[in-house]
Amino acid sequence: MKTNILICGLFLLLISCNTQQPKDKSALEETNEDSVAVQPDSSGNNASSGVIWKHSFNQQKEVFEMIQMRPVDNDTLTGEALEKIINSAWPKVQINFTGTSNDTAYLSIPDSEALTQQMGSAGAESFMISTTWSFTELKGIRYVAFDFIYGDHAMPGVYSRTSWKQNLNH
Fold it and tell me: What is the rounded CA–CA span in Å between residue 167 and residue 58?
């Protein structure tokens, strides 16, 4: 008898947690994309802020993967433009593009507390991967050197697209 009550209670709990009403699709379709206020997700990332690459979990495949959100023209793309894109996408983690040398782009994060202490390991990894993949879109750039005060969830250093190969399905 207790088992039946427990099963019924769990069933009711599941149903009550999944009763969110869908938003009015017609109102959403009428909204101009440029006028939508972009809200950061739990890691501090603005999903639709012009990002080039997004680090995302594919629930069907049960793996993390990189998704190219939009194409770029490598001939006209600049480090300054990428700095603006990243800073818009990650308002809690502001980067400074300090230049390039050979095949490396150099970035500094003057205030790294949000990255290293507040976003958690998954959020910090998502920031590091998506920023690295974005800056390696620059012509001739294969590495990104991050300079910031290390913390629990992120470490400064030089990264490439293969730095997280074991964690990505790409």
Answer: 12
Distance CA 112, CA 82 (A): 18
Tell me the C-alpha distance between 98 and 100, whole Å: 7
Q: How far apart are the first and last CA of the chain?
A: 50
The CA distance from 35 to 42, in Å, is 22
Say what angle helices 120-135 and 79-89 make with each other, to 10 degrees.
160
> Is 33 buried (19+), middle (13-18) or exposed (0-12) by CB count in 10 A?
exposed
Domain boundaries along the sequence of the chain: 44-167
Supply 90's token pair.
Answer: 């990650």
**pTM of the entire structure?**
0.67
Tens of pLDDT, residues 41-93? 444 444 445 887 777 767 787 777 777 878 888 888 999 999 999 999 999 99
Q: In whole angstroms, what is the distance from residue 156 CA to residue 167 CA?
A: 19
